[in-house]
Specification:
This protein is of the alpha/beta class. It has 2 domains: 4-169, VC0802-like, CATH 3.30.2130; 181-391, HUPs (Rossmann fold, 3-Layer(aba) Sandwich). Helix content is 41%, strand content 21%. It is built from 14 helices and 15 strands. The protein has helices spanning 18-34, 60-67, 86-101, 124-138, 191-201, 219-236, 247-256, 262-281, 300-307, 323-332, 336-339, 346-349, 361-369, 375-384, and strands spanning 4-9, 41-46, 49-54, 73-83, 108-114, 143-144, 151-157, 160-164, 168-169, 181-185, 205-212, 239-245, 285-287, 314-315, 387-391. Strands 1, 2, 3, 4, 5, 6, 7, 8 and 9 form a 9-stranded mixed beta sheet that branches. It has a 6-stranded mixed beta sheet with strand order 14-13-10-11-12-15, with helices on both faces. Strand 7 (151-157) and strand 8 (160-164) form a beta hairpin. Helix 5 runs parallel beside helix 6. It starts with a strand and ends with a strand. The mean pLDDT is 94. The protein binds adenosine-5'-triphosphate and magnesium ion.
Length: 392
């Protein structure tokens, strides 16, 4: 019976001229999300609202699930749309709506009518009273409760009549595309997919870079990163995944630099290469899954040392999160099960037994001078041989 959805979005963020940008981006993200769903959909803006009309054979559950991944949506309301046939018919439609939507008819309720169509014979207060009466006549076990109703029935009298009572929560945030583009350093772990999700939630388009080190890391480890990118792309929209072969750089660092500094120096080269691709994609920032104090390479000093090679801002949305909080989000967005698959990671293979936890930037810079002979060439080769995978 629900052939239409009314989409609610946060009003506060979108005063003034941003409103159009926000709404257009939201419409385009909704269209994109619904491409994966059975059925035909017509998404449109009307009088400051977004509606979706669905073809008869559409899949309700899949549609709701897809919409729950579109940032910017606060509420998803399945709507019954009826023709305006006057007061008597409006009452019939409301009773029919309750009959079809609910199995039980013994709850307390309140009617909220809005009447943008001023030519309708009664105003919204009169409609509330009239419809309340009609509901009580049809369902004697229901009762009015204006303070804490179990069921809130919304009736909007426009050129057509819209009736709904469910507001399914959306993910909130801002539509992807309203806040620029960023480059996510995506590993196969738990944290970085969550970091990408969180930045994207603020309206940011994402691309991603993954450093792999064949033969030390396997094809299956790479596939896991591709799978994670696919899962988060349901929220972020299309992602270009840059797969960088990092082996020669890692081996060279391993050969030339003190082993307790390996992680930091490797990190610095990852950031440099990520920044190169950020430039290519016109990204304004890098994003990582780092969280303060989680491991040796995530102390304040280590973060400062990796940051130091970047000229664009590095966003670390998980910086203040405990592991469990990150895991909770990973489970919510469905990346957790994939993230915990046990494949090796290039950082754990070349890791020192006792890494420095408080690197001194000058010491690190000095160690990097030992790479002078070949590092530029290795970086160029790594960049030049990078594989780009389009995740739709
Ligand atoms: P994650 O769970 O995201 O793998 P982690 O807890 O394992 O993070 P680190 O290994 O210190 O932490 O990595 C910190 C961040 O550096 C990651 O969140 C990710 O953004 C980036 N990173 C680490 N390894 C890689 C890699 N092989 N490719 C791309 N980015 C990486
Ligand atoms: Mg990791």
């Amino acid at each position: 019976m629900f052939q239409t959805f009314l989409i609610k979005y946060g009003e506060i963020a979108i005063k003034g001229k941003n409103r159009h940008l926000f709404e257009d981006a939201l419409v385009s993200q909704i269209c994109h999300a619904l491409k994966r769903v059975e059925g035909e959909f017509h998404v449109y803006k009307e009088q400051g609202r977004i509606y979706i009309d669905c073809s008869p054979e559409y899949d309700y559950d899949e549609t709701v699930e897809a919409l729950q991944k579109v940032f910017g949506i606060v509420g998803i309301c399945p709507v019954m749309k009826c023709e305006d046939g006057g007061v008597q018919k409006l009452g019939d439609d409301v009773v029919e709506f309750l009959r079809q939507t609910y199995d039980r008819h013994d709850q307390s309720f309140k009617v909220f009518t809005r009447r943008p169509k001023k030519s309708f014979p009664i105003d919204s207060m009169e409609a509330n009273a009239e419809l309340g009466g009609r509901i009580l006549d049809a369902f004697p076990d229901m009762r009015v409760d204006v303070h804490e109703p179990e069921l809130q029935l919304y009736v909007e009298i426009r050129d057509e009549i819209f009736i709904y009572s469910k507001i399914i929560p959306g993910p909130g945030g801002m539509p992807v595309g309203t806040n620029g583009r960023a480059m996510l350093l995506l590993s196969g772990g738990i944290d970085s997919p969550v970091a990408g999700y969180m930045i994207s939630k603020r309206g940011v388009c994402l691309d991603a870079v993954y450093f792999h080190a064949p033969p030390y890391t396997s094809e299956r480890a790479k596939q896991k990163v591709i799978d994670l990118a696919k899962i988060i792309s349901a929220y972020t929209g299309p992602i270009r995944l840059f797969v960088v072969n990092f082996t020669d750089i890692q081996l060279y660092i391993y050969d030339k630099c003190p082993h307790d500094e390996l992680t930091i120096i490797m990190r610095r080269y990852m950031m440099r290469i990520a920044e190169h691709f950020a430039g290519e994609t016109k990204a304004h920032a890098l994003v990582t899954g780092e969280s303060l104090g989680q491991v040796a390479s995530q102390t304040m000093q280590s973060l400062a040392a990796t940051n130091e090679v970047c000229t664009v801002p590095v966003f670390r949305p998980l910086i203040g999160f405990d592991k469990q909080e990150i895991v909770d989000i990973a489970q919510k967005i469905d990346t957790f099960e994939t993230s915990i698959l046990p494949f090796e990671d290039c950082c754990t293979i070349f890791v020192a037994k006792h890494p420095v936890t408080k690197p001194n930037i000058n010491v690190i810079k000095h160690s990097e001078t030992k790479l002078a002979e070949k590092i530029d060439e290795l970086m160029q080769t790594a960049i030049g041989t990078t594989e780009v995978i389009r995740i739709e």
